[in-house]
Amino acid sequence: MNRRTIGLIIPSLxxxxxxxxxxxxxxxxxxxxxxxxxxxxxxxxxxxxxESSRNVLYSLVDDRNIDGLIIWTAGLxxxxxxxxxxxxxxxxxxxxxVLLDCRHEGYDHIFADSYHPMKxxxxxxxxxxxxxxxxxxxxxxxxxxxxxxxxxxKDALEESDIPFRQDFVFETKHSxxxxxxxxxxxxxxxxxxxxxQGVAVFNDTRARQFIDAMNRIGxxxxxxxxxxxxxDTPNSLYYxxxxxxxxxxxxxxxxxGVRAIIARIDxxxxxxxxxxxxxxxxxxxxxxxxxxxESNRHKVENLASSLGEKMRNIQLxxxxxxxxxxxxxxxxxxxNFNSVFSDFLTRSSIPLCKIxxxxxxxxxxxxxxxxxxxxxxxxxxxxxxxxxxIKYRPGIPRENRFTFIxxxxxxxxxxxxxxxxxxxxxxxxxxxxxxxxxxxYFKENRLLSSLHEQxxxxxxxxxxxxxxxxxxxxxRNLLVQSEKIAALSNLTGGIAHxxxxxxxxxxxxxxxxxxxxxxxxxxxxxxxxxxxxxxxxALDKSLPIVTQNLKRVADLVSTFKDxxxxxxxxxxxxxxxxxxxxxxxxxxxxxxxxRISVKVISGDSFSIEVFPGVLSQILSILVExxxxxxxxxxxxxxxxxxxxxxxxxxxxxxYDDGPGIPHEIRGxxxxxxxxxxxxxxxxxxxxxxxxxxxxxxxRGSIEVIDRFDGGACFRIVLPGT
Length: 721
Description:
Elements lengths: L4 E6 L5 H17 L2 E6 L8 H4 L15 E5 H4 L5 H9 L6 E4 L7 E6 L1 H14 L5 E4 L6 H16 L9 E2 L7 H15 L5 E4 L2 H13 L9 E3 L16 E3 L2 H16 L8 E4 L1 E3 L12 H33 L2 H4 L1 H14 L4 E7 L6 E9 L2 E3 L6 E2 H6 L10 E9 L2 E9 L5 H94 L6 H36 L9 E4 H15 L4 E7 L4 E4 L1 H17 L8 E10 L2 E8 L29 H12 L3 E4 L8 E6 L3
Parallel strand pairs: 1-2, 1-3, 2-17, 3-4, 4-5, 5-11, 6-7, 6-8, 8-9, 20-22
Antiparallel strand pairs: 10-12, 13-14, 13-18, 14-15, 14-16, 17-18, 19-21, 22-23, 23-25, 24-25
Helix pairs in contact: 1-9, 5-6, 7-8, 10-12, 10-14, 14-15, 17-18
GO molecular function: DNA-binding transcription factor activity; phosphorelay sensor kinase activity; transcription cis-regulatory region binding
Catalytic activity: ATP + protein L-histidine = ADP + protein N-phospho-L-histidine
InterPro entries: HATPase_C_sf, HATPase_dom, His_kinase_dom, HisK_dim/P_dom, LacI/GalR-like_sensor, Peripla_BP_I, Sig_transdc_His_kin-like_C
C-alpha cells in the first residue's frame, strides 16, 4: 500500500506561529507515517507582487498527487471576502479538505476560540488593574480571528459600562514596511496619550512593534502604559517586559488537523467540529509581578538555543547570497553554482533539493536544472517536463516518509520555476530567504543569458550586415560605373547632337566654296572672269555662315568646359552672405539693362567660407534662366533671394515671378541638354551646370520647391564649415 501524502497550504514560513503550527503537523505526520507537502503560497490576492506571485503554488494541488489537504484558512484569507475564500476552497474538489482556525460550513475545521480568552484578558485590565481607557491594536478586517478578538474587546468594555471610542482603535496596515507601521503607532498614540491607560493587541508581533514604538518616545511598559497581547509565540518570553498574553494552541491545532484529514481520507464523514481554547498567561506587561518558573526558564533556554541556530542559518544564507553575487561567473557558470549551492545544502542539513525551471515565458514546459540528495550532486534528468510531471512525480524518493517544501522561483510577476526541498533542521525563515535568493539569482541568470543571446544575435546580425554592406558597396560601385558610363554616353550624345548642326552647316558651306573655287581654277567655258565673280558671290554668302556656325561651336565648347566642375577656377574665401548676395544681384541687374528687379531678404548677417566665384556663377545662370523664361523679351522680372540659417547650414531660396516650373518636368530639369525653349541658342546645360556646382564644388544640395505665389523657386542648402 502506498504511503499517503497530505498537503499543507499556509501563507508563509517565517512567522512565529507558523513555525509552531508546522511543527505540530510534522510531528503528527511522523506519528501517522504519512508524507507531507508544504505549499507556502502567500495570502490570497495580496497587492504585494512578492506575495501574490507565490499563489502559483496552489495550482500544483489535485487529487492525483495529494490524498488530503490542510488549509490554514485564517492567515490565508486576511485580505479577501468570504465568497472569494469559498471559491478558492472549492477549486480543490474532490480532494478531502480540513480547515484550520476557521469555521466553514461543509468542511471539517479545527478552530481555536479566541473570543473568550481575549475578553478575559481585557477584563483583567479593567477589573484587576482598574483601567477604563483601554485602546486596541487590530488585525486585518477580513481576518476571522481578528474580528473575534476585536468583538471581545468591545463586549468587555460594554459589560463594564465603558464607552467604545473609535479613536482608541489602531487599524493595522499589515504592511511589509515595519518602519511605516511603527511611525503609524507613534502618531496614533500621540493623539490620545493624555487619556490612554492600557492597550490590548491582536497578536504578539504587533505588540512587539508597539513596544518598539513606545521605546522611541520614552514611554515605559507597564509603568506608563499597560499592555496585553495574544498568541504566546516562542519569543514572547524574550521581550522586555515579559508579555501578558494568551497561549494559542497552534501546535495542538496542527496535530489535530492531521488526525482529522486522515479520518476524512478514510471516509469517516461524521467528524465532529474540534474547538480549542487558549489560556491566559499573566506576566509583566500588564503591571503584574512575574517570575520565571522552571518551565519558563526551559523555554527561554530553548529560545536562546533556537536563536543561535537561526543566526547560524542567517550566516549560511548570507554566504550563499554573497557567493552568487560575487562575480558574473557565478551567474553564467553552472558548475560554479552547483558547487556553491551543494555546499550550502550540506551545511544547512537539507537532505534533498531539486530545481525545475520553465523553458520559456509561457510557463508550459520545464526542465530539471539541479538535483541533489544526501550530500551528493545528481545528474539532472534531460526529459522535458510539464507542470503535471512536477505535480505527480516530483522526484522525491517514496521508499521513506518525507516532508518537503515547494517554493516558487519568481521576480515580481515573472515565475521562473520551482524549488523542492526536503525539510531539514532549519526554521521557516531560512527557506523563505532561500526562495528570494534563488529567485534573484535566476532572474539575473536569465537576464545575462538573454543579454548573451542578444549579443550573439547582434554579432551575427552585424556580420550579416557587414557582408550586406560589402555587397551593396560592390553593387553601388558597379551602378556608379554604369551610371557614369550612361551619363557619359548621354553627355557624349548630347554634345555630338549640339555640335553636329553648326558643324554640318559650316561643312556644307565650305564644300560649296570648294566647288566654286574648283570652277574658278578650271573654268569649263574658259571664262575665268565669270568664274571669279561666281567665287566672290559664294564667298559673300558662305563665309558669314561658316563664321557664325564655327562661333556657335566655340561657344558650345566653352559651355562644355563649364560642365567640368574641377576646371572652375577660384579659391575659397569668407563672405558676409547677405552683403555678397546684394552686390552680385545688383551687378546682374546692370548686366541685363535693368530688365530685372532684385530683392535680397536676410535676417541677421553672418559669414560663411565658400567659393565666391562658384556662387556667383550659380546665381548668374539662375538669373539668365529667369530672364529667358519670362513672358516676353520686354517683360520685367522680379527676382528675390532669401537667405537664412538652420543650425550650421546656410539656406538660400532663389525665386522669381515667372511662369514657374511644371511638376511633370521637375525630375528632368537638372539633366543635361533638357530645355523647354529649344533652339540652337539654348543647349539646356544651365541647370545641369548649377546642379554640378552646388553638389560637387560646394558640397551642398539644390531642389525645386513650391511657393504660394507661383514662380520658379530653387532652394540651395550649403553645409557648415
